[in-house]
Automatic annotation (TrEMBL):
<protein>
    <recommendedName>
        <fullName>Nicotinate-nucleotide--dimethylbenzimidazole phosphoribosyltransferase</fullName>
        <ecNumber>2.4.2.21</ecNumber>
    </recommendedName>
</protein>
<keyword id="KW-0808">Transferase</keyword>
<comment type="similarity">
    <text>Belongs to the CobT family.</text>
</comment>
<comment type="pathway">
    <text>Nucleoside biosynthesis; alpha-ribazole biosynthesis; alpha-ribazole from 5,6-dimethylbenzimidazole: step 1/2.</text>
</comment>
<dbReference type="Pfam" id="PF02277">
    <property type="entry name" value="DBI_PRT"/>
</dbReference>
<dbReference type="GO" id="GO:0009236">
    <property type="term" value="P:cobalamin biosynthetic process"/>
</dbReference>
<dbReference type="GO" id="GO:0008939">
    <property type="term" value="F:nicotinate-nucleotide-dimethylbenzimidazole phosphoribosyltransferase activity"/>
</dbReference>
<dbReference type="InterPro" id="IPR036087">
    <property type="entry name" value="Nict_dMeBzImd_PRibTrfase_sf"/>
</dbReference>
<dbReference type="InterPro" id="IPR023195">
    <property type="entry name" value="Nict_dMeBzImd_PRibTrfase_N"/>
</dbReference>
<dbReference type="InterPro" id="IPR017846">
    <property type="entry name" value="Nict_dMeBzImd_PRibTrfase_bact"/>
</dbReference>
<dbReference type="InterPro" id="IPR003200">
    <property type="entry name" value="Nict_dMeBzImd_PRibTrfase"/>
</dbReference>
<keyword id="KW-0169">Cobalamin biosynthesis</keyword>
<feature type="active site" description="Proton acceptor">
    <location>
        <position position="341"/>
    </location>
</feature>
<keyword id="KW-0328">Glycosyltransferase</keyword>
<comment type="function">
    <text>Catalyzes the synthesis of alpha-ribazole-5'-phosphate from nicotinate mononucleotide (NAMN) and 5,6-dimethylbenzimidazole (DMB).</text>
</comment>
Length: 380
């Protein structure tokens, strides 16, 4: 028997903790500084906006993006049994071993930006004990197949979200130099079939039919994508009586129910991590499609969480663009990435650092003795 979400939220009281408010004075001062830098106003586009937002998050006019921690959440999915991925389920654990050996894209990106990488295995069919930098939790070998069962029990959902939260705590406490604040938390995921899970959740949150959202993930062909959409449609129909409030646009359904019925352990951990970041006042850099669905869940649980999220890049997964309403800012990059692992978020870090450097180090019109724009030119 499934417990209702109200019992679940009671179990994880921290979900209801308020999100830290942005420092509006620092943000205003950063906005004023941008206007004084030697360039036409707005000409550095999203780089200006990200520096101003970071100023608000960090409570200082001169923000930084030096200290970065990366956490990758990995888990297996029961829905993989329905043939919804181009790759076999064994790849999840195999890639965790690759993360531990330093051979995955996220490992290279982590070294490139000098950020520590922690991998959290929340449950894989093949265990991954004794690997360096891999923290094993093994909630279950995999989620239940959501075509026939809710993916998780309420207790498993609570555990997975708590692990995401504690990963943020780990990142805050593990810093070698405690005096230096954590500037950015990069979260990633690994889980064969997790685009099916994320698409099902997106379908509920956005009230958009699965056939309009399903995409290739790791590389399905057109018939594979149709099969994936059909599986999601059947699963939503199967659980329909438990999915109150998701029937139409502007849905008021409980995001925790969507997560419990269709989520993966790693998606729940990501959702918990984004909420914890917002509560602790840590900027989270959001990766691709799966991470952005988790970020959307976090924002449905607490809309103020959006203040603490930087969307790093537009995933090539076709449904990505449909997730974007409701976020404070739009993705920084479009590199046609669809890898996951937190790779796109880590790739965006040097750009965020550059946005801070431009904001902090450019000369003002006054300092450089450059004439500022005349405020208005009267029409003749
Ligand atoms: O982040 C993305 O935008 C993204 C888009 C497509 C696939 N992925 C990755 O690919 C895996 C899921 O793909 P699939 O086809 O098995 O559902 C999972 O490990 C994700 O990290 C990630
Ligand atoms: C090889 C491989 C690497 C990945 N990294 C994230 N998702 C992935 C999926 C596959 C298949």
């Amino acid at each position: 028997m499934n417990m209702r979400p109200t019992e679940l939220t009671t179990a994880s009281d921290w979900l209801n903790k308020p999100v830290k408010a942005l420092d509006s004075i620092a943000m205003y001062a950063a906005e004023e500084r941008q206007k004084q830098l030697t360039k036409p106003a707005g000409s550095l586009g999203k780089l200006e906006k990200v520096a101003i937002r970071l100023a608000g998050m960090q409570g200082r006019v001169f923000p930084r993006a030096d200290k970065v921690c990366i956490a990758v959440f990995a888990a297996d999915h029961g829905i993989a049994a329905e043939g919804v991925s181009a790759f076999p389920q064994a790849v999840t654990a195999e890639m965790i071993r690759n993360f531990a050996r330093g051979g995955a894209a996220i490992c290279v990106a982590a070294r490139f930006i000098a950020a520590p990488l922690a991998v959290y295995n929340l449950g894989t069919v093949s265990p991954t004990e004794g690997l360096p930098n891999v923290i094993n939790h093994q909630i279950a070998p995999q989620t239940a197949n959501f075509l026939y069962h809710p993916s998780m029990t309420p207790a498993q959902l609570t555990t997975a979200m708590d692990i995401g939260r504690s990963a943020v705590g780990d990142a805050l406490t593990q810093q070698a130099d405690k005096a230096q604040r954590l500037d950015l938390f990069v979260a990633g995921e690994m889980g064969i079939a997790n685009t099916t899970s994320a698409t099902a959740i997106a379908s509920l949150l956005l009230s958009i039919a699965p056939e309009k959202l399903a995409g290739p993930g790791t590389g399905l062909d057109a018939s594979g994508v149709s099969h994936k959409a059909m599986i999601i449609t059947r699963a939503i129909e199967f659980h329909r009586s438990e999915l109150k409030g998701f029937e139409q646009k502007g849905s008021i359904g409980d995001p925790l129910i969507a997560l419990q019925y269709f989520g993966g352990f790693e998606i729940a951990a990501l959702t918990g991590a984004y909420l914890a970041c917002a509560q602790e006042g840590v900027t989270a850099v959001v990766d691709g499609f799966i991470c952005t669905v988790a970020a959307l869940l976090a924002c449905r649980i607490n809309p103020q969480a959006a203040d603490w999220l930087i969307l790093s890049h537009s995933s090539a997964e076709p449904a990505y663009a449909m997730l974007l309403d409701g976020f404070v800012s739009q993705p920084l990059l479009n590199l046609e990435l669809r890898l996951g692992e937190g790779s796109g978020a880590a790739i965006a870090v040097p750009l965020i650092r550059l946005a801070c450097a431009l904001h902090n180090e450019m000369a003002t019109f006054e300092e450089a003795a450059v004439s500022a724009a005349v405020s208005t030119i009267e029409a003749t």
